[in-house]
Design a protein that fits this description.
The two termini are 105 Å apart. This protein is mainly alpha-helical and 257 residues long. Among the domains are: 48 residues, no CATH class; 94 residues, TolA/TonB C-terminal domain (2-Layer Sandwich). The strands form two sheets. The chain has a three-stranded mixed sheet with strand order 1-4-5, with no helix packed on it. It has a three-stranded antiparallel sheet with strand order 3-2-6, covered by helices on one side. It contains nine helices and six strands; from the N terminus they run H-H-H-H-H-H-E-H-H-E-E-H-E-E-E. The relative contact order is 0.08. About 11% of the residues have low confidence. InterPro entries: TonB_C. One of its GO terms (biological process) is transmembrane transport. This is Gram-negative bacterial tonB protein. Pfam families: TonB_C.
Length: 257
Amino acid sequence: MLFELTEIIFENRNKLYGAYYLRKNYHKALTIGFLTNLPLILLLALDVKFFSKSNSPTTSKPQGQEFMLQVQEVELQDINFEETPILLLPQTPPPPKNETEPQKNSEKNTENNQEISVVEDITQNKTPQNEKGSTSTENKPNKDTLPNSTSSESNHNEPAQTYSPDMWSVYVKKNLRYPPQALRERKECNVFVAVVIDETGKMEIDKERANFSCEEYFNEEVRRLIANAPRFIVFDASGKPQKKKLMLKIPFELPKN
């Protein structure tokens, strides 16, 4: 590399300095090349030393730090505290106090106490009536908790009527109670049950063909309807009451909202 550099140098400067013959001598060529390039080397050194410092960004201290340094250098004896201005923050004035507020609060408290005393008097006056009402309700039997025998006796005491599918459907529509569990589960069913009607019109489930085709809560409602059913008499061709076995249909359909 060094020989190539010297060749490039002397090719450009052989005509000016007349030193083409020095290519054969290494030391002479190197010294001549160094001397010819010495001004350039000096200029580069000066540029790096001086111009780089001028172009480099100066890190100046912020104004706040300089001010703090100046304040620290000042002695306390030279400061006149009486002449130095004092910076005060703006303060909002407190809201005016209403003298009527404690009076209003006291009036409200007295009114509340009066209302409480009135309520206590009313409750004390009503307690014996409530006790009487509770004893009376305890003595009175609930209609829903009554056994089915009473309702069946009332239905059986009614005058007998001739059996027909229409009369049976009317009785079912009036007295059917949809099971709550079926309403929750949104279930429907058609129950077919075999019954026996005797000469007096009494209806019973046929024990030989007591087959139910739905869930148990539907079957319980069917048993209740048959136990509480009125007397339906079936007449023969001559017009006499007869004992008859029938297959009844009891539909359970969800109420349409």
